[in-house]
Amino acid sequence: MQPFERLRAIARWTKGIDEESLLLEAIDCLADFDDDPAGLVVACRRLLSYHPYSPRLWWVCSRVIGSLEPRMVAWDTWDQIRNDATASYLHTWIGQTWIGSASLGADERPILSLGWSQTMSSLADFSAGREIVVMRTGDDNNLSRSLREESRPIRVIGAVEVAVLDPACVLVPIVVSGGGRVFVTPKIFESLDLLSEIPTVGVAPIGCALSENVVRAFISGNEALDLKELRITSAQSFAGPSGVVPREQFLQRRDAPDAPELIRSLG
């Protein structure tokens, strides 16, 4: 199959698949444009026009589009996804963090995740002896699809039950960050008001931290998502591929270079 035929198939027929599968298909396709810089720009633009909601697809395109060796960078990006250590660092953080005079790792209360992701799934594998409870965040179909693939049952609760759960800590999936700003879904934003006294850590796996310009393009192209900026007081620590770091350090993180070619192509 020719690269543009493959691109057309991915753009049209991958809606609804999980993000990791989408990224693998996109990376495999973009690698085929190694000797066609103009075609690579068109390919990135086409993929993002059909799948604008995936910030990590924007990350993939940002890395590949300005590279002198698109094929090598594309597959290096896939290696980074497969080897992302965010869940491992988060597991260590939970085991070593102290709240007052008590170790969070020794706390038998459940961990609350505001939504579900591959990082949460990996954390559940690392923390087999600890219950991880997930709160519904409005996208119940995707949540159900994700949880059906888990090797052990994951308890799901609503916002009302969150108030009485008394979790040991709260995990906040970050949608995207960049330019000193961090964004989450509206449902998560609202839920944090009920959990202000509980230790909270933002979870931002590889590919979530973009340049300021790319984040601005992502936000403007996804107004229907109605993303909310995370308050400064909501999470002071953030888990990522290099560890759990203070907010100030996380805000300096950028997983991909700026991509003027991509921004110009999107108008």
Question: Could you explain the architecture of this structure?
Answer:
The protein has a 7-stranded mixed beta sheet. The protein is built from 13 helices and 12 strands. The model has no long low-confidence stretch (mean pLDDT 86). 45% of the residues lie in helices and 15% in strands. It folds into 2 domains: 3-83; 86-250, Translation initiation factor eif-2b, domain 2 (Rossmann fold, 3-Layer(aba) Sandwich), CATH 3.40.50. α2 packs antiparallel against α5 (70-82). With 267 residues, the chain is an alpha/beta fold.
Summarize this structure briefly.
The protein is an alpha/beta fold and 267 residues long.
Largest sheet: 7 strands, mixed
In CATH's first tier, which class of the largest domain applies?
Alpha Beta
Number of domains as seen in the coordinates: 2
**Would you report the number of β strands?**
12
Kindly report the CATH topology of the largest domain: Rossmann fold
* Secondary-structure class: alpha/beta
SSE ordering: HHHHHHEEEHEHEHEEEHEHEEEHH
Q: Calculate the terminal CA-CA distance, rounded to whole Å.
A: 30 Å
What is Rg?
19 Å
Low-confidence stretches: none
Rough shape?
globular
Helix content: 40-55%
Topology:
Layout: H1 3-13, H2 19-30, H3 37-50, H4 55-65, H5 70-82, H6 86-96, E1 98-99, E2 102-103, E3 111-113, H7 118-126, E4 132-135, H8 140-147, E5 156-157, H9 159-165, E6 169-173, E7 176-178, E8 181-184, H10 186-191, E9 200-203, H11 212-220, E10 228-229, E11 237-240, E12 243-246, H12 247-250, H13 260-265
Parallel strand pairs: 3-4, 3-6, 4-5, 6-9, 9-11
Antiparallel strand pairs: 1-2, 7-8, 8-10, 11-12
Helix pairs in contact: 1-2, 1-3, 2-4, 2-5, 3-4, 4-5, 6-7
